[in-house]
Design goal:
With 182 residues, this protein is of the alpha/beta class. The protein has a single domain (4-131), classed as 5'-nuclease (Rossmann fold, 3-Layer(aba) Sandwich). Helix content is 52%, strand content 14%. It has helices spanning 8-16, 20-27, 35-38, 62-68, 79-88, 94-106, 115-124, 131-142, 146-160, 171-177; strands at 4-6, 31-34, 43-47, 55-59, 71-74, 109-111, 128-129. It has a 5-stranded parallel β-sheet with strand order 5-2-1-6-7. Strands 3-4 form a two-stranded antiparallel sheet. It is globular, with a radius of gyration of 16 Å.
């Protein structure tokens, strides 16, 4: 997929998968993240040192993502991007508004799971990919073992606290391939 802008949820999910380099490398020609998203992408959950059954907050290592996964941090730096950002910030949060303004003005794709953001992106004519679609493309590109697929989905659910909405187009696929699949 062409160079894509990651929103907060997508960034957190990729990090929580514990395979961000593999997923990004297999699916995208490149990824960018607006600075507004970095300020929203602070923590995931991880097993506690004293009690692995207890999840604790753990800071997201943005430097690791930049160096090892090749994520490029960008800013709103064009007048039309700033104007669109201000307009979109009236209906979306700042991170999603920045993502969509950058994706639209630079001709990039958008990774988001937010239904409202997807609707706005559709109105803008943006190519959108969701976390389940990222995993589907990763599977098609790399043919991982079934256990690895389950582990990635479990990691995203447990550490990133993400599961597609039950009415989502890919909710059944997610359940079948995740911990619900046998």
């Amino acid at each position: 997929m062409k160079v894509t802008v990651l929103d907060t949820c997508s960034l957190i999910n990729l990090y929580a998968s514990q395979r961000p380099q593999s997923l990004i490398g297999a699916v995208f020609d490149g990824v960018v993240v607006p600075k507004q998203v970095l300020s929203e992408s602070l923590f995931i959950r991880r097993p506690g040192d004293d009690d692995p059954g207890q999840l604790v907050l753990s800071a997201i290592d943005i430097d690791l993502l930049v160096v090892e996964a090749g994520i490029k941090v960008v800013e709103l730096d064009q007048e039309h991007e700033l104007e669109l950002f201000v307009r979109l910030a009236g209906i979306l949060d700042d991170g999603e508004a920045a993502c969509e303004a950058i994706a639209f003005s630079r001709g990039l794709g958008l990774a988001t799971n937010d239904r409202k953001a997807i609707a706005v992106a559709s109105d803008l004519g943006l190519e959108v990919v969701t976390t389940p679609e990222i995993l589907m493309r990763w599977i098609d590109a790399t043919s991982p073992e079934r256990q690895e697929i389950r582990e990635v989905i479990k990691n995203i659910e447990r550490f990133g606290r993400f599961k597609p909405h039950h009415a989502s187009l890919h909710a059944k696929w997610w359940d079948k391939n995740g911990s619900g699949g046998k």
